Amino acid sequence: MYLRKIKNIIFWCLVVGFTLSTFVPLFLILKHTITMGWSELSLDFIFNTPRAVGELGGGMSHAIVGSLMIIFVATIISVPVGIVTGTFLSEFSNSRLASITRTFIGILAGTPSIVIGIFAYVTLVVPWKSFSGWAGSLALSLVILPIVTRSTEEVLKLVPTTIREAGLALGFTKVKIFYYLLIKGNKRAILTGVILAISRSMGETAPLLFTAFGNVYLSYNLNGPISSLPVQIFNYASSPHLEWQRQAWTGAVVLIIIIFAVNIVSKIFVSNSSNASNR
Amino acid sequence: MKLTTRLEERLGISLIYICVSVVVVLIFVMIVLLFKMSFISMSKFGLNFITSTTWNPVEEQFGALPFIYGTILTSILSLTIALPFGILSAIFVTELGPKRLRNILGTSIDLIAAIPSIVFGMWGLFYLVPFIRDTLTPILTKFLGFLPLFQGSSFGISILAATLILSIMIIPTISSLCREIFLSVPVTYKEAALALGATPWEKIKFAVLKPSLTGIVGAAGLALARALGETMAVVMVIGNSPQISLSLLAPGATMASILANEYAEATTDLHLASLCYMASLLFIITMIVNSASHFIIKYFKPKAFAR
Fold it and tell me: What is the ipTM of this complex?
């Protein structure tokens, strides 16, 4: 009898102890990043390009611009394709093509991001013989595509059949049902998946290392190497200059703020949309 | 009117088919291109590539064993460390913790997964590595120094650092998958256990953990796949030296870390092809681990009480 109680107490302590210690690294990482990077965070950092080694000041505007351009193009490519593919998987789920597609999307979703970078490298960088922003965009769209496809498929599978039947009863064609009832009707939920996928791609460094490669100047040219925030942080963090290391921390703070904000906003989005559907 | 509707339908459906086919063909083509790029290396080294320990770009001798060893060692060790944290925190969030806290705790654990791996890497390089060098190594060598695992001096940059960073990174994966699995166990099991007078520990052991064992194995597999392919955090703390060392305090390298480290500098065709060969191996390994885990999770259903 006592033994059972003692076991129970030990179990309680273990669960609480392990759970609490799970948060220790999160806390330490945020604390260190913010103490190291916050003080340098300024408008100067966001709107200026880097100065030469040894000079104080300067920022990462070129990397922020580069990241935005790469991600913008990646989003334009992959989000529509992902939504269409997700709709296809949910609505034609029994067809041969659907099972092949599902397998390939599954493979892509599980592929390490560095290998995705190499995919983009062999597809675009090797034939063009030059690093380019387009290759970076291709790599990131390969990161975004499976996430959007899967979340769209999940969302549409939850839509009751009666909605589709209602559309058919109104004389809608299948394509109209997909567009007006399924995609437009679940805008919010689909958008949440899209936002999460984009936020995931923002932090990706490995796929950009040898596709977009990096650049120390402000460049709007996607045909050439272009800088991105994560790669810039990586280059600065592994450099021996203290000033650059400080800037890397500041870059990390910017990155974390953007990604956390996007994540939390999309969580709120989710809880709102689930409330709305309970009407 | 009817004609245009039919036309619209035809057109729309075929557009969807074209779009999906393009996706499939593109992914397939990229996989083929990757294998094609590695062809020179594959034909030169064949399967010896996997068993050879020399990695010397200058003399064009390429063998992947040190990297395969490093990848598997760091992933398995980090999975071992992360599993209890992941499972127990999932139990806390789904079963034991105060109801109000559950949502917040779950979200914060998910936030760990949202931190970009480059930030993990930086934190590892500037905080974890000095901590291992100055604090952890003396303790480990003092108490566990007789083990071959903790021999030699440490500069902090080590397999151990990579393992610790990886385990922090995969805890949220395990935790959130386990949460879903635990929630899928029918409540009646727990009620039955309680009705028999079980303590909370017995209830969780028999009515939560045992029925979801296969699911937990699947979750561990997915986390393992994530650890196998993790690049940026590892490349910054592991030292990237192609050696096979039993000691965790020595530097090492993983398949992903060597790719990130040498890809941009690869000048000769054979070097590039060998890196592509390595990437194909990594791709195949993660694909196998991933599909095995998905298979396990898919066919997992909460089983009734095991004896």
Answer: 0.90
